Amino acid sequence: MKVTVVGAGNVGATCADVLAYREIANEVVLLDIKEGVAEGKALDIWQKAPINLYDTRTVGSTNDYAKTAGSDVVVITSGLPRKPGMTRDDLIQTNAGIVKSVTENVVKHSPDAIIIIVSNPLDVMTYQAHITSKFPRTRVMGMAGILDTARYRAFLAEALNVSPKDIQAVLMGGHGDTMVPLPRYTTVGGIPVTELIGKEELDAIIQRTKTGGGELVKLMGTSAWYAPGSAAAQMVEAIVRDQRRVFPVCIQLDGEYGIKDCYLGVPVILGKNGVEKVIELDLNAEEMALLKVSEGHVKEVMTVLDNLA
Question: Using 50, 70 and 90 to split pLDDT, how confident is the model at 309?
Fold first, then answer.
């Protein structure tokens, strides 16, 4: 098995490191446009192999997609963070160009790959990669839901003073303020979370989850990388090992939840073919209304991208 991670920044390097450490693939290729960065980080990860006892080969490349040829899964983390004075439209235009170029190279060298997008704005970058690749929707997806649910579960574990291992949760919708947490589907060791925590405290945790990325930016002056990189690696593992795990994943909806041609996070079964199945939950009226708000927000951003074309 061969996995490529495009973008050797903090998120991409973390993803490659987790993939190597967990021996998820025989070879991990780290690629970046900045001279020497991917080679250096890949070499550093390889030199750690005798210490942490793994044998996944990590290889770095400066923009040479020939080294990525025949990849089973490609994770795309490329793109610029939003800078002061930059509008949302500026960010979309810049990153859409990057994701389009990367996707074209991926398709050329790995036509059978499954693509996982981590670049932001996540939902619209998944849209860009999908229309560029012309792959079936089951083979182009965005990583957001696993990260968002991880933050939600971590905050709940802290509040309840329990192990995060025992908390299961589902989040839906767009990546950001309009995400739709579903307390009704959140359990702690099989116990509904609503039996263990008050509504006010739970609402505060949900709000903190929605702005979880911004909280880290305020603290560090830059966006997160350990959790996003690990979340992307978890998706790769589910595909490479055909685990058929149930994860919230950003995918083009085709009538599910009454939504068509919009890229939203929904629970899916993830296996060797990518998205094996989209799971349709029986949402109540309040939850469906929130999902529709999220759909409207994502479609607005998709329209921005359409108008740039």
Answer: low
Six-digit token string for 117: 């997008």
User: How distant, in Å, are the alpha carbons of 130, 248, 255, 259 from that of 251?
Assistant: 9, 9, 12, 12
Task: Please give the structure tokens belonging to residue 221.
Answer: 């002056």
Number of Cβ within 10 Å of residue 3's Cβ equals 30
Residues 10-53 pLDDT 10s:
999 999 999 999 999 999 999 999 999 999 999 999 999 999 99
Radius of gyration (C-alpha) of the chain in whole angstroms: 19
pTM: 0.97
| Catalytic residue chosen out of the listed positions 109, 130, 175, 297 | 175
DSSP strands (E only) in the chain: 2-6, 27-32, 57-62, 73-76, 114-117, 140-142, 167-168, 171-172, 180-181, 187-188, 191-192, 245-254, 260-271, 274-278
Q: What is the pLDDT of residues 198-213, one digit of tens each?
A: 999 999 999 999 999 8
d(CA 75, CA 119): 9
Enumerate the β-bridge partners of residue 271: 274
What's CA 185's distance to the chain center, in Å? 21
175 has catalytic annotation: yes
Helices 122-133, 88-109: axis angle to 10 degrees equals: 40
